[in-house]
DNA sequence: TTTAAGATAGACAAGTCTGTCTATCTATTT
DNA sequence: AAATAGATAGACAGACTTGTCTATCTTAAA
């Protein structure tokens, strides 16, 4: 028998993998139980509903996501290169997932309009990412046409726009275009 | 009794409204039948499966979408203002749908990864939109940092990035920011 | 006027969904 | 050693899913 903590981890890993690759609505509790190899009651002991499992997934993903991002960019010193590293991080994630798209955006498109908790968690992740961009842009010298805040907004939207596009084009072309545009905007 | 053509129109209207507001996976054939007020066999007479109904919805939406866009921007003469009109078109659509997001992106996030037909239809719509931007940018005089193609890409990603963000923020702030950035980039 | 297409209502199959419940077993804590 | 927490398997309810089928009715064309 596995321990309580191990079970919770296994459930979250399995559910996260399935939610991302198949979609939240297309993934049934039964499949999570089967693939996690745990008992039905164990899942409902740790999570009171499927929605609760979704929220836990989003929270856990937020942590993991930034952890992995920092592993990639913390070693970079040059501020401009650090920002370019954000694009490379997304490029890497896309290739690894075979262009499954951003997991947060996917959930955003799937949950009903009144699931404010889901939208809050998604917004929290995205605004944290935007704030990181804003911080990094502070260290960049004056820009021709755009204010610092506008440059940060532009970089954020380049990344998000390229990510959704990659999700249906199933290739990296838009993100590499975004990256080279960013390099030019950063001067 | 309604005519065959009327029925098909009613089905598409009803399915489209429900697919967009509730999501494709969360909308059952039974609900479409009930709300359209038609017989079950009539639906399966016009569309051989739920997937087929989705494809017809995407094709019809593509037409309607560009029709509405052209109603808004064809009267504008100034090339820069025409491009700003694209942002205003999206702003209007978002407000009208209470920030339900882009219907194409929503489907892109919901369908299984092997539904290449859906991804093709979505890509067709988005690339047509991007090509329109590219045409409009041709008429804009030289830009400081970016090439014509890069400016078009940037505008496209600003709009798409702002749209997905609006879908979870449920407000227009990101799209208005994108619009004023676009105005600056256009000089 | 006969024929044929396509509308109608509704039963049905075979499966899925979420969440609850019982009953039993095991491991840890008191 | 007894008690408790939490694991297990699996039945179950009740609703929902897509797609097919029968049987009847209405309209339009031949």
UniProtKB/TrEMBL annotation, chains A, B:
Residues 5-65 form the HTH tetR-type domain. SUPFAM superfamilies: Homeodomain-like, Tetracyclin repressor-like, C-terminal domain. The keyword Plastid does not apply. The keyword Transcription regulation applies. One of its GO terms (molecular function) is DNA binding. Residues 28-47 bind DNA. Keywords: DNA-binding, Transcription, Transcription regulation. It comes from the Bacteria. This is TetR family transcriptional regulator. It comes from Chitinophaga skermanii.
